[in-house]
Batch of 3 targets.
Target 1
Amino acid sequence: MSNEVLRTIRERRSIPRFKPERIPDEILHEVLEAGRWAPSYANLQPWEFIVVRDEAVKARLSEIVEKVTIYRRGVQNADVVIVVAADPEVDPLHYREDAAAATQNMALAAHSLGIASYWIGIPEGGPSSAEALTKELLGIPDEFSVVAILPLGYPDPDYKPEKDRRPLEEIVHWDRFGNTRAL
Ligand SMILES: Cc1cc2nc3c(=O)[nH]c(=O)nc-3n(C[C@H](O)[C@H](O)[C@H](O)COP(=O)(O)O)c2cc1C
């Protein structure tokens, strides 16, 4: 069985290498729209998306993410970098999951429109953490949490991502943990 959604989910890969080509504003708009339509606990929508296109800001961001990813160059070379922040005061229970759902929606929408991305997870906390430095750089209020950074760009055709997944037989437990079976 296959359709466009299933293919997009299966074929999206993390790609940290981009061509120096501008993403048209209409495409960027659709990606951001996909983030807006993500589910969130009680529809609280605690997220904010900071869209970074300024070269100097991207350069500084790429230095900051060196703390959490080996692919800092991807941030520098991406046409657009979306920083996903969430307000724990809006959704104290699930702000990180909400922001993660928005991030994945944007990654999938981007892929469906021919745009590559890779998700940089930002761990919470610490005065000199990537999170704190990102907040300072972008003027994100202290009470927010920075959850993810999503660089976007047209994929470098020479980059060949290869990722497999654990088989369903191993992941799925029927009625009780440990009851796995061949599918
Ligand atoms: C919460 C989270 C954090 C991640 N953080 C990073 C990261 O810091 N750097 C990076 O290169 N990729 C990061 N990734 C991407 C994963 O490495 C990638 O999704 C995984 O290896 C599977 O590969 P695929 O996305 O190509 O299928 C992150 C993904 C998630 C969901």
Target 2
Amino acid sequence: MVKLPNGDSLARPQAERRKDSLKPYTKFAEVYDRMGSDRHSIKMTDYCFRIFRRFRIKPINGLDLCCGTGTAAAIFADRGIKMAGLDQSAHMLAVAAKKLGLRGVTLYQKSLPRFKILGQHNSRKTRKFDLVTSFFDSLNYLLTERDLKASFRSVYNHLEPGGWFVFDMNTQEALKVIWSGQVYADARDDIAWVWKNEYNAKKRMAYCHADFFVKTKDHWERFYEMHTERAYPNAVIKRLLREVGFTVKGYYRCFSFENPKWDAYRICAVVQRKI
Ligand SMILES: C[S@@+](CC[C@H](N)C(=O)[O-])C[C@H]1O[C@@H](n2cnc3c(N)ncnc32)[C@H](O)[C@@H]1O
């Protein structure tokens, strides 16, 4: 149920996708950075460099999973890490390719949970990295424990022994407080949006009904995407990581080095493949 600011409610079955729904990150890709959604990558890469110092990580080859419009990959590449990016959305990757320009970042259009990147020169071997990252609750788009675990396994298989995986995820508290029944809207000169969010506590799933209005030359275009995220308890995330062989080196309230208490909205995990 979406509550409107005037107290009314929009009754709508929680997981109903409107008929005009585009796939997530189709047209949203064109306006993602303009809406400021790329700011998270700037904060996250900053935080990552603090994590690197803390654990003495010196990455050489990195993969940004669910890289979106490529902001994190660009920042890491500018700091000397040879980067690759993976995302399932061709639209996000198109924006990323433009942004990354001549930085030499290879982009792969692939989907989690099971993905395989092969080495160079038609090698049949899986390409290995010493760092994999995934930012801005991208892993919350995996809607079953099975898919989350399979994604962790795919990451594990792409890491060198001793390689690191750093990711953030939304918590149950975030979906409950930030998504549940909230409406987010803004109107600027050339873009406006109305995002109505719903939360199903039993399933720990949140649904964002996102309407966008974008001005192109002399007319406004409207489009709609529905985004679905699922939250996982910290104990489950850590168990799945360990089951695929990772050692959990750090598990934090995101942007800090504190334990995430019940009220944390976002966690950050720092895990390592066995040496
Ligand atoms: C919230 S955006 C985050 C993008 C980028 N990491 C950032 O920080 O700005 C989520 C991204 O995850 C990608 N994504 C979602 N589910 C995916 C899946 N199953 N496989 C690959 N990419 C996926 C989307 O296409 C989108 O680019």
Target 3
Amino acid sequence: MKGRQGFWARLRRPIRALAPMEDVTDTVFRRVVASTFPPDVYFTEFVSCDGLCSAGHDAVAHRLDYTEEERPIVAQIWGTSPERFYRAAGMIRALGFDGIDINMGCPVKKIVRNGACAALIDDPPLAAELVDAAREGAAPLPVSVKTRIGFREKKTEEWAAFLLDLQPALLTVHGRTARDMSDVPADWNEVRKVVELRNAMGSRTIILGNGDVVENRQLEEFPSRYGVDGVMVGRGVFHDLFIFRRSDSGDPSPPFADLPSCEKLSLYRRHIALHREAWGNEKNFNVVKKFAKTYVSGFSGAAKLRTELMEACGYEEMLTILASAASEQSAIN
Ligand SMILES: Cc1cc2nc3c(=O)[nH]c(=O)nc-3n(C[C@H](O)[C@H](O)[C@H](O)COP(=O)(O)O)c2cc1C
């Protein structure tokens, strides 16, 4: 059904969402975040509908692994075939997800060359077909769209009006064009235009703004400044793993940077151990090194420790290095 909002309608406002991030927001990272200061909603990494509907199914299906701690959880899909969107949406519904999100924002060349993701901004008829197909396959789950404000040039209002007419449950607006990649600051005034348009159209679509939210206080400030119903945080979670902490509940917790170093290292160990348990040899273990800067920063000896970790050859070696660093640090702390 068009416009069905499902769980989105029940979330408190302003909504705080953890962005989908390839090779970052898998079930392991989402669980780490859930165990500290959880957002209101999680997204999977983007999942190819072609992959899901082909012999290569198993190679992408792990992206749909999740646990109950990560609810509400939305599966993000991408592709160009309405028929595969329909089938993939059915699979995702059967897996118990809370919603489905369609990627219309990824600017990666080899993807947009084939007409998928951000390329859909210049192909509205196909974008509409994909939304319809996902909605049909996913029913009664709510279907949302994540997009940018143009492909080469900004065409925020034209594109947003088209999408809003399709009545997605929710629209996430990343305030950059595809050509911008991540090289220029996100333009939140363009995000505001989408909200104004939504209001003028009398549309019920919920709007999240996305781009460059790096501080906890912006989770409250941006909704009141730009009118969005909530904010989606991507890289900001690397700057502050505790970015979703709530101050309105009198929460005394400091940003992650203020934690004693041994506690930072202990959380990194937990992350790595979870990764080993969840993925074993299935995923390249080096992925966990991406998080070194997040956990191993802001104390004396951090840079040297990160170099040691980068040279580690497996989970065990990383865990051992971190255990001995943590005991040194706890003597200091
Ligand atoms: C490592 C990485 C992977 C990403 N993967 C996805 C993805 O799978 N799906 C998606 O819609 N956006 C993806 N993005 C884009 C983010 O969701 C977000 O829109 C972008 O980073 C801007 O928000 P930020 O400034 O809060 O990071 C990715 C971004 C990064 C940095």
